[in-house]
């Protein structure tokens, strides 16, 4: 039985964005992120996470982001099972009201 995936609301993330507390990782496809990403987010397509695991740091806290929260939930689950400290952005980019950068 895996542990519960922690969620963070878009409002919480927006408040903490400048603090540097979280590393935001957008797991959407290239054409989706072309429409805008959360400022400072790193783009790692969901399917490439296993081979890019060495880019993640177990001492950091990550927030995983996708369009609606489903793919980022899967990414969060995978990373958590591999010993990483992760949160899933509740509602994904559909709920994000903050700034986006192209």
Whole-angstrom Rg = 12 Å
Average residue-wise pLDDT: 95
* Assigned CATH class: Alpha Beta
CATH topology: Oxidized Rhodanese, domain 1
The appropriate CATH architecture is: 3-Layer(aba) Sandwich
From the helix content, strand content and strand pairing, which structural class follows?
Answer: alpha/beta
Shape verdict: globular
| Fraction in beta strands | 15-25%
E-strand count: 5
Largest sheet: 5 strands, parallel
Q: For the largest sheet, list the strands in their spatial order.
A: 1-5-4-2-3
Order of helices and strands: EHEHEEHEH
CATH homolog superfamily: Rhodanese-like domain
Q: State the domain count.
A: 1
How much helix is in the residues?
25-40%
- Report low-confidence residues grouped into runs of 5 or more: none
- H/I helix tally: 4
* Termini Cα gap: 39 Å
Protein name: Rhodanese-like domain-containing protein
Organism: Piscibacillus salipiscarius
InterPro entries: GlpE_sulfurtransferase, Rhodanese-like_dom, Rhodanese-like_dom_sf
Domain Rhodanese: 18-101
Give structural notes:
The model has no long low-confidence stretch (mean pLDDT 95). The protein has 4 helices and 5 strands. Strand 2, helix 2 and strand 3 form a beta-alpha-beta unit. Strands 1-5-4-2-3 form a 5-stranded parallel beta sheet. Helices cover 26% and strands 20% of the residues. The protein has helices at residues 10-16, 30-33, 70-81, 92-95, and strands spanning 6-8, 22-26, 42-43, 61-65, 85-89. The chain has 102 residues and is an alpha/beta fold. The N and C termini lie far apart (39 Å). The relative contact order is 0.28. The chain has one domain (6-95): Rhodanese-like domain (Oxidized Rhodanese, domain 1, 3-Layer(aba) Sandwich), CATH 3.40.250.
């Amino acid at each position: 039985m895996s542990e519960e995936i922690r969620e963070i609301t878009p409002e919480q993330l927006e408040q903490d964005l400048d603090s540097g507390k979280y590393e935001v990782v957008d797991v959407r496809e290239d054409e989706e992120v072309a429409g805008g990403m959360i400022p400072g987010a790193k783009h790692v397509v969901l399917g490439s996470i296993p081979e890019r695991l060495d880019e993640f740091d177990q001492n950091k806290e990550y927030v995983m982001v996708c369009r609606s929260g489903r793919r980022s939930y899967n990414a969060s689950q995978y990373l958590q099972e591999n010993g990483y400290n992760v949160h899933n952005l509740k509602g994904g980019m559909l709920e994000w009201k903050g700034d986006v950068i192209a």
